[in-house]
Amino acid sequence: MNSISKAVSGAVALFSLVACQQQAISAEAATVIAAPVFDETVGGPGAATTSATAVFAGGCFWGVQGVFQHVKGVSNAVSGYTGGDARSASYEAIERGDTGHAESVKITYDPAQISYGKLLQIFFSVAHDPTQLNRQGPDSGTQYRSAVFPQNAAQQNVAEKYIVQLNASGVFKKPLATRIEPGKQFYVAESYHQNYLTLHPNDPYIVYNDLQKITDLKRILPGQYRADAVLVRKAM
């Protein structure tokens, strides 16, 4: 979501806006993938709590947040920054690309309704293209990298094994570029970034890069799709 690249993307989108409206176009095409072989048990002993947290980074956080706001079992999805320190956790700072932060989304979910592995399946198949290194669509730089920030050892184990599974399956044309970065703090982004996709569905950037992701979620994983987005009311 670099300002210059965003402007260029917007110009291209405006030029082809009629075509986009007739048939939604996504910069990162969705890929149908198998669920993880190794996962948490939904509703089992390991999912006794009613609330858990996952943190993912997959390019501009507008689209990633928008996708997970339409996932059943998710009660909150907040845009923010992960990977750097508190001093550089701002949009103005991370645009330099040297803070260590990635635009990320903190997802609060109910493990009795959806597992961590199922969230990863949505992340890898719909929310972004995990084979792109330090970029998504028109946005480039380490702040747009594909990354999983596990909140505990169990999440890290699921993520590591799933990446091995997906690479071995050959479902993607290239190996996954996704990094697993444990022990990183999440910092909430500015309020104007929250709920951006829902509040600005006609923004050319959203039309071109992100709206199709919601359609793909409904098409590919209908059992996980919810029509009404769960919007951020209090970013935490």
For the structure shown, list the relevant keywords.
single chain, 236 residues, alpha+beta, Peptide Methionine Sulfoxide Reductase, Chain A, two-stranded antiparallel sheet, 34% helix, globular
Structural class: alpha+beta
Do you know the CATH topology?
Answer: Peptide Methionine Sulfoxide Reductase, Chain A
Strand order, main sheet: write it out: 7-6-1-3-2-8
Shape: globular
Largest sheet: 6 strands, mixed
Q: Mean of the pLDDT scores?
A: 88
Total of helices: 9
Q: What is the name of the CATH superfamily? A: Peptide methionine sulphoxide reductase MsrA
Poorly predicted tracts of residues:
7-26
CATH class: Alpha Beta
Structure description:
With 236 residues, the chain is α+β, with helices and mostly antiparallel strands. It has one domain (3-29, 42-224): Peptide methionine sulphoxide reductase MsrA (Peptide Methionine Sulfoxide Reductase, Chain A). Helix content is 34%, strand content 15%. Helix 3 packs across helix 5 (116-127). The longest helix is centred in the last third of the chain and has 17 residues, at 153-169. Residues 7-26 have low confidence and may be disordered.
